[in-house]
Amino acid sequence: MAKMSLTSLLDGASTQAPHETAEINEPITSPPTPAMVTAPEPPPASHEATPVPAPAPVTTPPANSGRQPNYLALERKETRLRFGQLDDLTEIRRRLNKNRQGRGERLTENTLIRIAIDLLLTRANDLAGSTEAELRKSVGLSTGGRPPRRSADAGAPQ
User: CA 49 → CA 44, 46, 52, distances in Å?
Assistant: First the structure.
């Protein structure tokens, strides 16, 4: 039997008796349905600032039970670092990963940042000031920002 187009088949279907069938070599698929579109949520009625909740107490997150990578259990927060901070973090991370000799978990710059935040949160009651320099001074850090970089030999065991 010759191939028939779907249109000619459908046109002829209305004139055929219900017991007749047509043979075609092309698969018949149902027509696509339009995707459901939901309207975007309207903006809030007022543009007042949302109150910021008090910081949660510092707690150690539970150990990852192996079901998913640790980073998927964490919240994302971006930050800007001063010149050299990322290089210093990378240097520390490399040294710590080299010293662990395959034991434990892989350490990242984000791991070190989380530890630094935990350390800061333990000193939250000591924080005082209205500028970064004043805040740094209140927890015993120099006001100049980045501490002097140690030489590669300074951290090596003797």
Answer: 11, 9, 9
State pLDDT tens for residues 21-61: 555 555 555 555 555 555 556 555 555 555 555 555 555 55
Give residues with Cβ within 8 angstroms of 122, minimum separation 6. 58
pLDDT of residue 68: 77
Task: Supply the pLDDT for residue 72.
Answer: 84
| Cα R_g (the chain), whole angstroms | 32
Collapsed DSSP state (helix, strand, coil) of residue 114: helix
Tokens of 8: 């000619």
Q: What is the DSSP string of 38-87?
A: PPPPPPPS--PPPPPPPPPPP-PPPPP-SSS-GGGGS--------TTHHH
What is the rounded distance in angstroms from the CA atom of residue 91 to the CA atom of residue 88?
Answer: 5
